[in-house]
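Quick one:
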Amino acid sequence: MQATTLKYKSQGVAKYYFVAALVLFTAQIVFGITLGLQYVIGDFLFPYIPFNQARMVHTNLLIVWLLFGFMGSAYYLIPEESETELYSTKLAMVLFWVFLAAGGLTIVGYLAVPYAKLAELTGNELLATMGREFLEQPLPTKLGIVIVALGFLFNISMTVLKGRKTSISLVLLMGLWGLALMFLFSFVNPANLVRDKMYWWFVVHLWVEGTWELILGSLLAFVLIKTTGVDREVIDKWLYVIIAMALITGILGTGHHFFFIGLPGYWQWIGSIFSAMEPIPFFMMTVFAFNMVQRRRREHPNQAALLWAVGCSVVGFLGAGLWGFMHTLSPVNYYTHGTQITAAHGHLAFYGAYVMVVIAMISYAMPTLRGREANSRRAQNIEMWSFWIMTIGMALMVLALTGAGILQVWLQRMPTENAMSFMATQDQLRFFYWLRMAGGVGFLLGLLTFLFSFFAKPGDEEDTVISGASNLTPKRA
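Output:
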């Protein structure tokens, strides 16, 4: 295997963030399978890990490990795009340990202490911020997240300011700053339930369907530039159009969460129209990825990273675009809101749009971070198998949840008389829940396969070098 060195030494801090992200990702999937079992075996692990605790851990781990992935990607990408060393490697490492400790202690708190007691112990009476879905973090954790975010943004902003400015680094910076600013609404917890839900969606929706899409677009563009050799000017034009559409549709598309929470009726029109347009930027990403692959001027030795990047655009369009569109119009959402159809959309959208783009960055960057030009062919083959195992496992989960959601609507929401109760309906969905479990186990096996690829050694039949002397070799005619 041909050795290689990083272009900028400070990029090495990304390795810590990527390793932490993968460990937390694995823990998230383990808790997800625990939740799946609790759907079909109601007292599984009770009273040691009740459903409400397992769900908090599952969703919070998702957020935390993706943030680790975004931060690691930024620390790898920004020095290379800016053509300068990171402003402060020491600050990046200090923030890493602070964030990891805060996240770990919060998870321990969720599991070891009843939630009401945890709120009492962490000073929630001083500023009540706990008790809201996805934002269950205690006040000290939220404050820690803000401190880490400010230090992180200061570090990468100073790096960009002292170096070259590119479209990719500026779009990434805008997405990361937007992410941090939107999180401040998590500290706003008004007594009025309508205002509470409105501010809550300012965090949740404007993260995943707003600022995170800017991060997604910039990371995807970076990987495609590196793996295809297409001119930067071409990719920049695509990137600008995609993020413009993402912001236009994403910001006003927040209205599809305002349908039935007490806000004026015009939000049903605004939310329906603009959220119906939200698949457009994801479709554009799909066209963008395939276009770049078709126009590639070189064959990169890391084909696994290219597979993850293309897969991200396709699965992201299916999950965030198609499955989102299925129930985004207000007359449909009236029946489907909060059913398993919502869960199907959420799982596929997060996997396609954000999980896969972080894995694409890890797949591209980790060989260099480990002193290699690229992973061996055997390791890449294992990694490509992990791609298909994880994707098929997720597809089975999503199809099962979609079937469960359709039946749930039919039995519980549609009838005007003699509708089934919630629990009676859940009994009718057990077959789909077992299918979901099978998909979840398959997904975990795919993730373990991906982790195994890091330890795979070259086969006996392989050359000692995967490719030529450079990271990019000319494409054969």
